Each structure stands twice: as structure tokens, then as C-alpha cells.
Amino acid sequence: SSGINAEYGSFNTFNTTTMIPSYLYNKTMEDGRLALYAAMGDVAPDFTLAEQWELMKKPMEKKDNANVAIWDLNGGKSVTVTTESPMMQQMTTKTLDYKGQYLSSAAPTSSTKTTLFSAAHFAKHTASGNSYNYVLSMSLLPWEMTTLHYEFFEYSHTDTGEIKTKKIGSIPKPISDIRMLHQFMATDNFLVIPLWNLHFMPQSMVHVMYDMTHLCASISFAYDAPMYIHLMSISTGQIYTFEMPPERAIHPINAFERINSKGELEVVLDVPATSDVNEVDLNAHCLFDVLKIPNCKDTEFMYNTMPWNSTLRRFILNVNTMQHKIEDFPQSWTPVDTLVEFPMINPAYYGKSYCFAYFQQWQYSTNNMFLMKYDLCTGKAISWREKNKNVLEPIFAADPSGKSEDDGVIMAQVYDSSDASTELLVWDAKDLTVLARFDNLVKVPFTIHGWWFAD
Asked: What span, in angstroms and rounded, lies between the C-alpha atoms of 85 and 133?
């Protein structure tokens, strides 16, 4: 931990950085540390056969939760650290003192049922403040193992921070068609659940022990299968299913409901997506190969091999007619050859009609990362860039006295490739003017997620 005092105009700031160890991609044989939960990419040194067995046999409460995302699950009483697992970690909000594990009551405790995945990101209902997530459950009874269930739950909290869980509904899927669900959205009345074509399937039951500790071996893009968007009624659990061509996306921007000119109910889902899934072979390399340091340093490999072709895509789902439309927003950002990802909006507008979204732009050909603001109401984009500065995921903090959607600031960690240092930058959310810079005395990895906790 370290702190830096700085003064900017009429206000004082104090920045504290605390790093919590995570061993997702690396382990050391000397001190006996393991990546105790299934690692998405590679680990170094690789798992031995004995270690693979150790990872597989440990019960859920003994598995490590490699840190992926941050959430406010109990009204600001804790920082909840999440990943694709129902096992979460709880920290104090200001000092990040460890409070212990939180195993969602959504996780099955029966000896005949197990849980494979959960979403790394919760969905938030703006009006109620409730959160939503799922568990992918599988029966251990041989005659029931061919069907898995995405079981969705609502998380509410009391004034004292106690978390209560209620089941919303379930989506059954055959074991041959399990999709990675990293994030979904909530509107006033629905959970909006996109099952993109990132397909998870162990190569064989004999190979499952290796695959569960090397998930890249089990993840592929299903070119020959449709993409599904499911709408689940929050009040009844009823499912509305829309089928469409294959799509590749990870993090949605937002979803909201509206009434069209015919008086019909539409649900709108916006995402940064791969503009053309056939432009490069999405199965030539693992989804997570982009995170491997040798690949990151090879700009020719990144530009020619990894999918950077991005669009901002809108899915319009008509609940009354069960028809859908797909529209792309104007590709008005520069440079155009950039991966557009890590979307962020003013959190008060989740589940509502909105205009402004903020993104990281990653130009593979130069290995530079920029900050972008996109106006979905006008189709115009502006960007911030500075030599050797690489912007990580943007975080929006609203002006408490603000009146417009973009009244507030954007914060992001910025990695300087010239000296391997990291800064925290603060921009005006309206025009991306830099308002403040803070030195970090630690290096922050560029894949890290964040969240704003109002004091």
C-alpha cells in the first residue's frame, strides 16, 4: 500500500493503491502455490498430472477465486471480487482488508449436483438496486448429465449488508451446446441473456481433467450454430428466445426497454462486437492468446492473426412479434483499425435509454491503447491518446449535482510503455479533457476491471 497527496485547484485528493495477489496465470513450485481454480489461459510452469487432480477434487469452498471483476453486492458494505465462479471474495471498501469468502447460496450443496460457471459481472437493476447472476449447474447422476442448466438468481441486501438470494428462472441446454456467458444485462422487467458463439466443451470425458485446468483447449467459436438472446421475465421467469446468426462479443454496453411506433414492446441490447466473424479464423488461436506477453509484443502477429475488427451493434428484440433486427452504429472513430472493448456508461443509466458510452481502443498494429467516447444518439466519436500511454478499462463516476448524462468524470489506469509505470488519470466525461493525474507505485495489468464506490 502507498499513498500520494496532490492538490488540484480547490480540492485535495488522496490516492491509495492496494494489490491483492492473484495466481491465475503464474504459479511457483517453491512455495507450493497453485492456481486453484480453472485457469482460462496457460499457467507457468504448467500443471503436473498430480496438480490437475488436486484442482479437480477440491470442493468449491477450497478453490481460489482468481480476481477478474469488482462488484457492490451488499450496498457498499463490502467490495465483492468475482470471476466465472459462484465463490467470491469480500474486502472492506476503503482498506481492502480481507473479510473472507462468500459462497453464493445459489451454488448447489447437494452431493448429486455441481456447479461449473457463473458470470464474472453481475447485472444491476437500476430501480431496485438488486443484482443478478447465474450458476451453470450439472447433475452428477449419469442419466441426467446430458442437460445442464443456467440458473438465474436475484441478490438483494438488508440495511446491515446481509445478502438474500431468490431464484428467477432457468434455461436448460444440452451438454453439447454450452456457451460462455461472461456478462448479461437487466432492464426494468427482463434479464437480457446473450449466448454468443463461444462454445465450451471438453474434448472427451477422458480428457476432462486436462481441459478443466486448460480451458483454452475446450473453448471454440461455433461457426455452425446460431446465436441466442434469451429474455427472462424477472417477475415470472418466463423465457423469450431469439435466434440469429453467429456473433462474437464479450461485454455488453447496455440494455433497455422501449415502445415502438406500433405500440409494441421492444428490448434493445447494445454491444461492441466483432464486425465480421469470418474475417479471420476465430479458432486458429485461443480467445486468451491475446493476453500472452510474447504475443502482445509481436504487433504483426496481433494485427494479422487476432480479431480486432470491431463494430458497435444493436439488437432490437420485439417481445410482441418475436421478431428481431440487427443494426450497426457508424464506425466514426479513428483510427478505425482498433479493437473497441471494455464499455462503460453512467451507471445510473443501466437499463434505461441513453446516449454516451466509453471504451478502450486497442490498436494491435502499434500496441497502443486509447480512450474513446461514443455518442450513440449522433454516431459521433472522440478519442484521447498520448504517446506511450495505454488506457485500461474506463470507469464512470457521476457528478452528484449533475443534470445531464455525461456530467461526471472518467477514471482509468494508464500504463506508460516507455518506463513501465502506471498512472491513474481523471478526464472530464464531456470532452475527455484531463483533469488530474496520480502516480501509482505499482504496475497495474491492462486486463483489470474496476468499479466506482461512492463514499
From this structure: 10
Locate 248 and state its grid cell. Answer: 462474437
* Chain-centre distance for alpha carbon 304: 25
* DSSP run (H or E) holding 51: helix 49-57
Q: How far is CA 105 from CA 62, 135, 267, 284, 332, in A?
A: 16, 10, 30, 39, 45
State the Cα–Cα distance between residues 279 and 315, nearest whole angstrom: 21
Distance CA 69, CA 250 (A): 14
pLDDT digits (tens, 9 = 90+) for 72-118: 888 888 888 887 777 787 888 888 787 877 777 777 666 777 777 88
Closest to 38 (Cα-Cα) out of 168, 136, 113: 136
Which amino acid, 152?
F
Q: Work out whether strand 69-71 and strand 395-398 pair parallel, antiparallel, or are unpaired.
A: unpaired
User: Cell numbers 462488484 correspond to what residue?
Assistant: 71
What's the chain's length in residues?
455
Please tell me the pTM assigned to this model.
0.88
Which H or E element spans position 152? strand 147-157
CB atoms within 10 A of CB 25: 19
Name residue 277's amino acid.
V
Q: Could you tell me if 319 and 231 are in contact, meaning their C-beta atoms sit under 8 angstroms apart? A: yes
